[in-house]
Amino acid sequence: MLKEELVGTWRLVSLVTQRSDGSERNGMGSNPCGQIMYDALGNFSAHLMRGKPIPFASDDMGSGTLEEIRAAFLGYVAYWGRYEVDEEQLLVRHFPEGSLFPNWLGQTQTRFVELSGPRLILSTPPIVFAGHENRNIITWERAI
Predict the structure, then answer these.
(1) What is the pTM of this model?
(2) Residues linked to residue 2 through DSSP beta bridges, in sequence order
(3) For domain 2-142, is the CATH number 3.40.50.850?
(4) Mean pLDDT for the chain overall
(5) Pick from 127, 126, 107, 123: which is nearest to 115 by CA?
(6) Is 136 helix (H, G, I), strand (E, B) or coil?
(7) What is the mean pLDDT of residues 104-126?
(8) Helix (H) and strand (E) counts for the chain?
(9) Residue 45's CB: how many other CB atoms inside 10 A?
(10) Is 96 helix (H, G, I), strand (E, B) or coil?
(11) What is the gyration radius of the CA atoms in the chain, in angstroms?
């Protein structure tokens, strides 16, 4: 069963962004990091971060410049909530209860699932980011 196979903690291996023009790029830079966790009760948490983020000049989290805050926001994806698995269509639906991007609250985030041994590949339907329609292919490796 797909849901049982998803349960656990997964570490980010890569995030590839495919644009509608066919070009590809590393969605979070050359060395992204992150994890996604699924539990048996239907809860998930996902965090993805650009590799080598630029630190703020100040150690005061509330004192970043607009440029520092923008770079930090654009270099991090975080959301958590409930999930359900569609075994027939091989997909997982995330129902965010909290998200760094507030527009995801109340929406369903669909991810197509491919499992191969210790690897989990989640891919998105087209998502608009910075004015471009993208499809993300996110590869994870089982951590626990």
Answers:
(1) 0.90
(2) none
(3) no
(4) 93
(5) 123
(6) strand
(7) 95
(8) 2, 10
(9) 16
(10) strand
(11) 16
Can you list the alpha helix ranges (DSSP code H) found in the chain? 2-6, 66-74
DSSP 4: H
The domain spans of the chain are: 2-142
The pLDDT confidence band at residue 118, using thresholds 50, 70 and 90, is very high
Per-residue model confidence (pLDDT) at position 21: 83
pLDDT in tens, 27-39: 788 899 999 999 9
CA 60 to the chain's CA centroid: 27
DSSP state, residue 105: T
Kindly give, in sequence order, each residue whose CB lies less than 8 Å from that of residue 79, ignoring residues fewer than 6 positions away: 45, 46, 94, 96, 98, 99, 100, 101, 104, 109
Place of tokens 């998930």: 44
